[in-house]
Automatic annotation (TrEMBL):
It comes from Microbacterium horticulturae. The RecF protein is involved in DNA metabolism; it is required for DNA replication and normal SOS inducibility. RecF binds preferentially to single-stranded, linear DNA. It also seems to bind ATP. Keywords: ATP-binding, Cytoplasm, DNA damage, DNA repair, DNA replication, DNA-binding, Nucleotide-binding, SOS response. This is DNA replication and repair protein RecF. Gene3D superfamilies: P-loop containing nucleotide triphosphate hydrolases, RecF/RecN/SMC, N-terminal domain. Pfam families: SMC_N. HAMAP family: RecF.
C-alpha cells in the first residue's frame, strides 16, 4: 500500500496543499514549525482516527476555519481508492470512500499506517493511558470493529461514573442502587472483550518485539510485555502494577468479583475503579520494568521495537500490502548506529515517509524523493506545480466540504 496523492484544506498551517508521493522512501525536510509533521499526521489520521500529538481533533483545524479536509489516493497494486475525511472543530466528523459516505470509524479498514515519532518515548516513560492508547490503536487497525467496542466501553464508564457520583451526593448505599447492576453487566461484557483482545495482542507482539529490539539495540536484553489488570488487583493509584499470575477463572467472572470487592470504595469515590481503563502494559528488560530502570537508549529501542513489531504484525496479516511506515523527526533523537539499523529495518517496506529538520540526519538508504516544506508551502522539484495547488484545491474545498457536510441518508455521524 502506498499514498500516491495527499490533499489538505484548512489542515493545521495548510490553507490548501497538494503533494505527490511515490513508492519507496519519501522525505519531507524543513525547519521546525514549517508543517512537515502535519503531513505525516494527516496520513496517519486515516489509520488511527486521531493525532499522535494531541488528544482532540480541534487543534488540527486551521485557525479561522470550522473544519479541515484531508483527501488521499491510495494504491494497492492496480487498485486505487480515495479516502476523504472532514475533521470538524465541533461536532461529528464526516468521511467518504471513493465518493460514498461512510462512518469515520470505518476508515482504518482501508488504510494501515505505522508512525514513529519522538512522542513514542512516552509509551515507555509516560503514564498508563499512553500505553493503553498505543495498544488500542493497534487493535483498531487490526480489527476495526474494536473501535465500536472501545467507544461503547468508554460511554458505559462515563454513565456508570455519573451514577456513582449521584449516589455519593445523595448518600445512597450500594444495596439501594439496583440500577448499578445493569451498568455492571454492560461494563463486564464490553470490558472483558477488550481485556482479552489486549492480552492476545500482547502475546502476539512478544516475539516481533524481541527481534526488533535486538536489531535496533544490537543486543538481546530479553524484552517482554504483559498486562497488569485491575480485575486481578493491580491499582495504579497505589502503584501496585504487578501481574497476578495466579488469578483464575474467566475474565468476566474475575471482573464481576473485583467489582463486588470494590463496591464500597467506588461509592465513596464516585468512580469506576475496576476495568481495562485502569490497566497498564508493563514493559520489561532483563526482567525489570523499563519505566524507571532502562537507560535513555534502551527506552528508545523499546519504543522503536514496539512500532516495528506493530508494522510486522500488520504486514503479516494484511491483504492491502505493507503498512505505510512514517518516521517523523525520529533520526534526530538517535545515535548514528541506531539510525543505520532503523533505516535498514524499514527500507524494504513498500512506502516509507520521513520527516527531518535537516537532510544530513537521514541515512542514505532512505534519502530518495526529497520535498522541502516552508511555512505551509510544499516545494517539490519533481512536481513544481503541486506545492500550493491554488484555485484547483480551493475549488476542492468548496466541492468536498459541501458533500461531506451534507452526506446522504446512508451516512452516519461519528464523534471522533
Amino acid at each position: 500500500m502506498i499514498v500516491e496523492q495527499l490533499s489538505l484544506v484548512d489542515f493545521r498551517n495548510y490553507a490548501a496543499a497538494d503533494v505527490t508521493l511515490q513508492a519507496g522512501p519519501n522525505v519531507f525536510v524543513g525547519r521546525n514549525g514549517q508543517g512537515k509533521t502535519n503531513l505525516a499526521e494527516a496520513i496517519a489520521y486515516f489509520a488511527t482516527l486521531g493525532s499522535h500529538r494531541v488528544s482532540t481533533d480541534a487543534p488540527m483545524v486551521r485557525r479561522g476555519a470550522d473544519a479541515a479536509i484531508v483527501r488521499a489516493r491510495l494504491a494497492h497494486g492496480p487498485r486505487r481508492i480515495v479516502l476523504e475525511v472532514q475533521v470538524n472543530k465541533q461536532g461529528s466528523n464526516k468521511a467518504r470512500v471513493n465518493g460514498s459516505p461512510i462512518r469515520p470509524a470505518e476508515l482504518p479498514r482501508y488504510a494501515q499506517v505505522v508512525l514513529f515519532a519522538p512522542e513514542d518515548l512516552q509509551i515507555v516513560r509516560g503514564d498508563p493511558s499512553t500505553r493503553r492508547r498505543f495498544m488500542d490503536q493497534l487493535l483498531t487497525q487490526r480489527a476495526p470493529r474494536m473501535s465500536s467496542v472501545l467507544g461503547d466501553y468508554d460511554r458505559v464508564v462515563r454513565q456508570r461514573n455519573a451514577l456513582l457520583k449521584s449516589a455519593k451526593a445523595r448518600g445512597i448505599r450500594g444495596d439501594q442502587l439496583s440500577t448499578l447492576e445493569v451498568w455492571d453487566d454492560k461494563l463486564i461484557t464490553l470490558g472483558a472483550q477488550l481485556i482479552d483482545a489486549r492480552a492476545r495482542l500482547a502475546d502476539e507482539l512478544a516475539a516481533p518485539l524481541a527481534a526488533a529490539y535486538a536489531a535496533i539495540a544490537g543486543a538481546d536484553h530479553d524484552p517482554g510485555l504483559g498486562w497488569a489488570l485491575s480485575i486481578d488487583g493491580a491499582d495504579p493509584d497505589e502503584d501496585e502494577t504487578e501481574v497476578d499470575a495466579a488469578a483464575g477463572g474467566s475474565t468476566q467472572d474475575r471482573f464481576r468479583a473485583a467489582l463486588a470487592a470494590k463496591r464500597s470504595t467506588e461509592l465513596e469515590r464516585g468512580l469506576t475503579l475496576v476495568g481495562p481503563h485502569r490497566d497498564d502494559l508493563i514493559l520489561r528488560l532483563r526482567g525489570l520494568p523499563v519505566k524507571g530502570y532502562a537507560s535513555h537508549g534502551e527506552s528508545w529501542s523499546v519504543a522503536l521495537g514496539l512500532r516495528l513489531a506493530s508494522a510486522e504484525l500488520l504486514r503479516a496479516e494484511s491483504q492491502l500490502g505493507d503498512p505505510i511506515v512514517i518516521l517523523d523527526d525520529v533520526f534526530a533523537e538517535l545515535d548514528s548506529d541506531r539510525r543505520a539499523r532503523l533505516a535498514a529495518l524499514v527500507a524494504d517496506y513498500e512506502q516509507v515517509i520521513v520527516t527531518a529538520a535537516v537532510e544530513p540526519d537521514i541515512p542514505d538508504a532512505l534519502r530518495a524523493h526529497v520535498v522541502h516544506v516552508e511555512a505551509g508551502t510544499i516545494i517539490d522539484p519533481e512536481h513544481p506545480a503541486l506545492g500550493h495547488a491554488g484555485a484547483e484545491v480551493d475549488a476542492a474545498r468548496t466541492e468536498v466540504g459541501a458533500e461531506l457536510r451534507h452526506p446522504t441518508a446512508e451516512s452516519a455521524d461519528d464523534g471522533r
